[in-house]
Q: What sequence folds into this?
């Protein structure tokens, strides 16, 4: 048995897997979203920890007789925390990956011509999405933090580091390569914190964690009622690809949670995108490294939460499939969900949400339909970008798109996704690929599995979905989408002149 923490953007979960990839037990606890200002998103560090511990203890309590071999951690990436090294107390709320408060700072660095250097070292673009600018903001806005950080008296860490620190009662201050690679401070070729980037963002190296392999030992969970070896630590999207068995060059997966993330395996080589995709570390096992290209959509399932909670026009998100099916497929209503800007391949941090094509006949059903449609269309943008980059680098992209996440239960969406992307979709019968990936990595960490080759013998039942939309209708939908995105980006530029 392998216990996995899946610490996400809106909730913390703990799942117990057996050696055959089956979920034996699970527990989930939501926590508060904090919006102090326009475009700012924060979480309480104490709530992240308490909700995680609550879920773990429930699993341990209900499975006290089971032999649990290890504890793995997968987490929301780019979210950054800072705490006092002497007592472990947070010095500010966690600044979430969705947060846009550093937009001006990032734009200034772009104007100084620094994005190319950052991209070459990290594989990332200059955007508030990543952790470094958030750390820089904290350094500038918390009194005395810069001096304390330079003396090694504070800890900066992503969510995995915060959890490991607390689970080991401050004995281990570490992260893994997949999380480190998302900070904009980590050199993905040299596999270490980069001196030039630390200087640029004014982050003292004394305040940063040790960087380990994904399957390394990260200490023992002395804070829980049962001591477990902590091994198998990965950022959520890398873990999802690992749980989707994307072990071959060209394999590609897409995860639909609060956001959407498409990740394509590039093997042992770094591919620098010409389409504004991200080059990132997929995993590192026993010092063997594997890279990937990644595209990020900031709003996927988050759109449906907005439709339900903010607009109040959807009682249950599960009803959206039936509602979308009832709408005329030729509807001209287009929603561009740039609530926190647009991610890959557009990267327009100033853009904001927009709706086009409404008429007197437009009602709530059309808004729900266009919301789901926008997720498929954003995925198409990413798939087209990946195809182009792979073609330039003589890599053959798989003809199958493996999907997971909560939204794959929506039948209208998953069929629409296949039709819009014109792709064969492999839908995992078990939607917990993110947690599974970490469980498998944890199994490698404790020696239960010998490595990736050993995992190939495992299998997960999948459903296959094929495109079913006429080419004329598909082309019209894509044309309207492209026009709407272009207008959204142009409006943002005009508003910021």
A:
């Amino acid at each position: 048995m392998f216990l996995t923490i899946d610490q996400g953007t809106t909730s913390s979960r703990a799942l117990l897997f057996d050696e055959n990839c089956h979920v034996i037990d699970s527990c989930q606890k939501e926590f508060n979203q904090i919006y102090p200002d326009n475009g700012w998103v924060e979480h309480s560090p104490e709530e992240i920890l308490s909700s995680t511990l609550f879920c773990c203890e429930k699993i341990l309590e209900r499975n006290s007789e089971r032999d649990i071999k290890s504890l793995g951690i997968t987490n929301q990436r780019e979210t950054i925390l800072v705490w006092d090294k002497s007592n472990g107390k947070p010095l500010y709320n966690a600044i979430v990956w969705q947060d846009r408060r550093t937009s001006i700072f990032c734009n200034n660095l772009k104007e100084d011509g620094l994005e190319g250097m950052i991209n070459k070292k990290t594989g990332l673009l200059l955007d508030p999405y990543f952790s470094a600018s958030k750390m820089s903001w904290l350094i500038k806005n918390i009194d005395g933090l810069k001096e304390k950080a330079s003396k090694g008296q504070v800890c900066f860490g992503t969510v995995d580091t915060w959890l490991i620190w607390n689970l080991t009662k401050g004995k281990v201050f570490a992260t893994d390569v997949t999380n480190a690679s998302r900070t904009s401070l980590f050199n993905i070729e040299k596999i270490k914190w980069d001196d030039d980037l630390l200087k640029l963002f004014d982050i003292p190296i004394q305040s940063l964690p040790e960087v380990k392999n994904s399957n390394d030992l990260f200490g023992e969970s002395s804070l829980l009622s049962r001591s477990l070896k902590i091994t198998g630590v990965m950022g959520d999207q890398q873990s999802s690809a690992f749980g989707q068995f994307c072990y071959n060059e060209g394999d590609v997966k897409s995860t639909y949670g609060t956001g959407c993330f498409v990740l394509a395996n590039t093997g042992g080589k770094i591919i620098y995108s010409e389409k504004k995709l991200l080059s990132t570390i997929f995993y590192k096992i026993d010092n063997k490294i594997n890279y990937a290209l990644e595209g990020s959509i900031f709003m996927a399932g988050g759109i449906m939460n907005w439709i339900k909670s903010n607009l109040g026009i959807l009682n249950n998100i599960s009803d959206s499939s039936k509602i979308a099916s009832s709408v005329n497929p030729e509807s001209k209503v287009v929603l561009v969900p740039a609530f926190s800007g647009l991610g890959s391949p557009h990267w327009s941090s100033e853009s904001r949400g927009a709706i086009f094509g409404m008429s007197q006949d437009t009602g709530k059903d059309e808004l729900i339909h266009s919301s789901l449609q926008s997720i498929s269309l954003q995925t198409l943008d990413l798939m087209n970008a990946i195809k182009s980059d792979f073609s330039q680098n003589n890599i053959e992209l798989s003809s199958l798109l493996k999907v997971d996440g909560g939204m794959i239960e929506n039948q209208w969406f998953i069929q629409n996704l296949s039709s819009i992307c014109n792709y064969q979709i492999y839908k995992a019968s078990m939607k917990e690929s993110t947690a599974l990936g970490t469980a498998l990595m944890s199994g490698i960490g404790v020696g239960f599995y010998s490595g990736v080759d050993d995992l190939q013998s495992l299998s997960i039942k999948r459903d296959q979905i094929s495109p079913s939309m006429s080419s004329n209708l598909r082309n019209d939908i894509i044309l309207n989408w492209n026009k709407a995105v272009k207008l959204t980006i142009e409006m943002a530029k005009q508003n910021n002149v």
